[in-house]
């Protein structure tokens, strides 16, 4: 039977490698301390602790100033790796609502930095592509090499292939997601399979890819094996032949069968039907018995 090889169930056929992004803060840290105008009398205090920000660094959040200590206590995220707050002067790297210091964002296995690099997640752990491939990636059934994350792979009956390795055995062209037919542990695209293995219908000369019937040791499509007279399909129906041409019973009887001298209906002679020839006339067995009975009655009545 033909199969269809589906891509591995990742988005767009690719492993879902997350993209590194940096937290965007709705605040800006002023590198210089705030110095009031000598003519100003208005205070400039931390929005939370109310301490003066005179001569200190501060951070604006939603247009409200905070001292660095209050801002970090209120709004800083905790690093997944070291469990320490990610300060206002540090980069906050995030993935799926989890946060890291830039120096803490590394591969769980080899400890190499993942900053600005592709990575994969497995059981809550982040892995570089090399470590992920060595531990979890499939091996190509054809070239035996690792199928790297982020590359398209094809799967069929528990085996995996690189997209470029999943090819037709005959024409050597990639099969992709097109229909194919496996035979003797090899995969064939449908056109190549038909050319190499499929029987040819004796009527239309085209390949028989499924079903079909055999008559006189020759293959036919079901739709090609029809009555010579009425052209109705004969597959699954009783039929007979004359001069090597197939006929349904109705057409054969109408065209070739002798008529019963008793009932005038055709005598098919098929399926073991008995008939009698008498005085150059043919009779159904039952019709002839009835004829004899009538004839005998007439003789006895005289």
Structure description:
There is one protein chain. The protein has 302 residues and is α+β, with helices and mostly antiparallel strands. 16% of the residues lie in helices and 27% in strands. The chain is built from 5 helices and 24 strands. Strands 1-13-14 form a 3-stranded antiparallel β-sheet. Strands 2-11-12 form a 3-stranded antiparallel β-sheet, with no helix packed on it. The chain has a 3-stranded antiparallel β-sheet with strand order 3-7-8, with no helix packed on it. A hairpin with a 2-residue loop joins strand 23 and strand 24.
Can you give the helix content as a percent range?
A: 10-25%
Largest sheet: 3 strands, antiparallel
Structural class: alpha+beta
Give the averaged pLDDT, no decimals.
78
Straight-line distance between termini = 76 Å
In spatial order, strands of the major sheet run: 1-13-14
Overall morphology: rod-shaped
Q: What amount of the residues lies in strands?
A: 25-35%
Which sequence of SSEs, written as H and E, runs from N to C? Answer: EEEEEEHEEEEHEEEEHEEEEEEHEEEEH
Low-confidence spans = 1-32
- Strand tally, please? 24
Helix run count: 5
What Rg, in angstroms, do the CA atoms define? Answer: 44 Å
InterPro entries: LIM_FHL1/2/3/5_N, Znf_LIM
Subcellular location: Nucleus
GO molecular function: transcription coregulator activity; zinc ion binding
Domain LIM zinc-binding: 77-137, 138-199, 200-258
């Amino acid at each position: 039977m033909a199969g269809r090889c589906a891509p591995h169930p990742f988005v767009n056929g690719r492993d879902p490698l997350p993209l590194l992004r940096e937290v965007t803060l709705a605040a800006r840290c002023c590198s210089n301390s705030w110095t009031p105008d000598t003519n100003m009398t208005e205070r400039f205090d931390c929005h939370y602790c109310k301490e003066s920000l005179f001569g200190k660094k501060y951070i604006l959040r939603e247009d409200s100033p905070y001292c660095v200590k209050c801002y970090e206590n209120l709004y800083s995220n905790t690093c997944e790796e070291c469990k320490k707050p990610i300060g206002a002067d540090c980069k906050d790297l995030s993935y799926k609502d989890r946060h890291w210091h830039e120096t803490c964002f590394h591969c769980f296995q080899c400890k190499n930095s993942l900053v600005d690099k592709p990575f994969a997640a497995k059981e809550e752990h982040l892995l570089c592509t090399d470590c992920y491939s060595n531990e979890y990636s499939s091996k190509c059934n054809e070239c035996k090499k690792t199928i790297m994350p982020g590359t398209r792979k094809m799967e069929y009956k528990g085996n995996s292939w690189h997209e470029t390795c999943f090819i037709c055995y005959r024409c050597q062209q990639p099969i992709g997601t097109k229909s194919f037919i496996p035979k003797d542990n090899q995969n064939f695209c449908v056109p190549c399979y038909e050319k190499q293995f499929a029987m040819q219908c004796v009527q239309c000369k085209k390949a028989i890819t499924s079903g079909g019937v055999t008559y006189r040791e020759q293959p036919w499509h079901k739709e090609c094996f029809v009555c010579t007279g009425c052209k109705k399909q004969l597959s699954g129906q009783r039929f007979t032949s004359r001069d090597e041409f197939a006929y349904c019973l109705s057409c054969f009887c109408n065209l070739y069968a002798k008529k019963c001298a008793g009932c005038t209906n055709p005598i098919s002679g098929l399926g073991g039907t008995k008939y009698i020839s008498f005085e150059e006339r043919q009779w159904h067995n039952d019709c002839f018995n009835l004829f004899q009975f009538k004839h005998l009655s007439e003789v006895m009545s005289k």
